Amino acid sequence: QVQLVQSGGGLVQAGGSLRLSCAATRCTFCSYAMGWFRQAPGKEREFVAAISWSGGSASYADSVKGRFTISRDDAKNTVFLQMNALKFEDTAVYYCAAVDASYVYTNDYDYDYWGQGTQVTVSS
Predict the structure, then answer these.
(1) What does residue 89 show for φ and ψ, rounded to 5 degrees?
(2) Separation CA 108–CA 1 (nearest Å)
């Protein structure tokens, strides 16, 4: 069974940058569509970004468009979320997710595997 191991995150000032990583382990010839979601205290989990199996297509939430970039390195079975121009409202626990499918998926119920979550805190 695929495991997703997240790294990165932490505390940053508003306007700063962070990069999150998510490595798929126990996975041979991985070919998964990947996504990032986040959940702030007292709020529901929300979509952030997603990328297709090939890396040729991506989708972003309006709130992060132009600031965040999702990418993947298939040689390392790893997906990244580069977060620039961070805002206080980006503070949340971020989760990566994977599904054995080809396209871009923006709903959390489409995903089968989830990372452990990593805290991102942006100070204003």
Answers:
(1) -75, -5
(2) 19
